[in-house]
Design a protein that fits this description.
The complex is a heterodimer of chains A (about 100) and B (about 210). Chain A has 3 helices and no strands. Chain A is an all-alpha fold. Chain A has a domain of about 70 residues. The longest helix of chain A has about 35 residues. Chain B has about 210 residues and is of the alpha+beta class. Chain B folds into 2 domains: about 90 residues, no CATH class; about 110 residues, Alpha-Beta Plaits (2-Layer Sandwich). Chain B has 6 helices and 9 strands. In chain B, strand 2 and strand 3 form a beta hairpin. The longest helix of chain B has 26 residues. The chains are: A mainly alpha (about 100), B alpha+beta (about 210).
């Protein structure tokens, strides 16, 4: 069974897709930057969890590490709220690699 | 420009006669294509998903990701020709299967900030262990009932994609929901059956 879609009729739509909205570009850039920061934050959390589970950290090291992660978490929440983003907005799709976070 | 929805066997290709959808065939495969909307929106994405799910409910498919396009029908046919052997092999891998998605996470709440850094770290470790235990328990339910299980990225929640033979979907859903009912601190959801989105790429590509 073969049925073709008339590509020529769709050409005007293709041109419409490249019009960029400056506000959307700015939001997209903020989203991308915060996504990278969130990725680093989560990697730090995972590393911290591994270090705690492995043992050997002094009490003051645990306190300092935990406090740093807590502040990072708070700051990320503030930034997301400021730019009107949800946590899921920072979980970008990497195609065949799956989602980032 | 045309939007690509899914690839299926030529002999199983559905008849599509509305919304501008069409079937392109080449060799043993067929591709469902349609017009590309002028802008992207949530409604477009949902409409895309509805088309894929409608086709996937009847035949085995390899769904494309939303937003995949080709310049025109000839370019789409060229893709079919170039990828025929690998796509046919992947269609065989998902034959007779659907995807079931399982998610487990602590409910979002206005939990008070921890009283200290150590308490915050304790909380993170405790949550991580809780999800590891959940993964182990769900894993026991899935063993022998899923063709493939993949844990998706994310350490603050457990997300599993399961490639399940269609006749096992309802049983598996019941088993996981029964397990979920015993959980007091985790919110668990089981969704699907979906088209096999998480099993389109081969293992090497999926990392």
């Amino acid at each position: 069974m073969t049925t073709d879609v008339p590509g020529d009729e769709l050409e005007p739509r293709r041109r419409a897709r490249i019009e960029a909205d400056p506000e959307q570009v700015e939001r997209g850039l903020v989203q991308l930057v915060l996504t990278l920061v969130e990725l680093l934050r989560q990697l730090m959390e995972r590393q911290a969890i591994r270090r705690v589970e492995a043992g050997g950290l002094e009490d003051d090291q645990v306190e300092e590490l935990g406090r740093t992660l807590m502040l990072l978490d708070e700051k990320m929440t503030e930034l997301r709220d400021h730019f009107g983003l949800e946590a899921e907005d920072l979980n970008i799709d990497l195609g065949p690699l799956g989602r980032l976070l | 420009m045309i939007t690509l929805f899914a690839v299926t066997w030529r002999t199983h290709a559905p008849t599509l006669d509305k919304d501008g959808l069409a079937v392109l065939a080449d060799g043993n495969l067929a591709m469902i294509v349609g017009p590309t909307p002028s802008t992207t929106s949530r409604e477009d994405a949902l409409a895309f998903g509805r088309v894929v799910e409608r086709v996937a409910s009847a035949v085995d498919v390899l769904p494309f990701r939303y937003g995949t396009t080709a310049a025109d029908t000839e370019a789409a046919r060229e893709l079919l020709r170039e990828n025929e052997s690998s796509w046919a092999a992947r269609l065989l891998q998902v034959e007779g299967c659907s995807e079931l998605a399982i998610r487990a996470a602590r409910p979002e709440s206005d939990e008070e900030p921890a009283a200290s850094g150590a308490a915050h770290l304790d909380r993170l470790v405790s949550r991580s262990r809780q999800l590891d235990i959940a993964e182990e328990e769900i894993g026991r339910l899935l063993t022998g009932r899923c063709r493939v299980v993949r844990r998706l990225a994310g350490h603050q929640e457990l997300r599993l994609s399961c490639l399940v033979e269609r006749h096992q979907v309802d049983l598996l859903r019941v088993l996981v929901e029964e397990w979920a009912a015993s959980q007091t601190e985790l919110e668990v959801s089981v969704t699907g059956a979906w088209a096999t989105y998480s099993f389109v790429a081969n293992d090497e590509e999926a990392g």
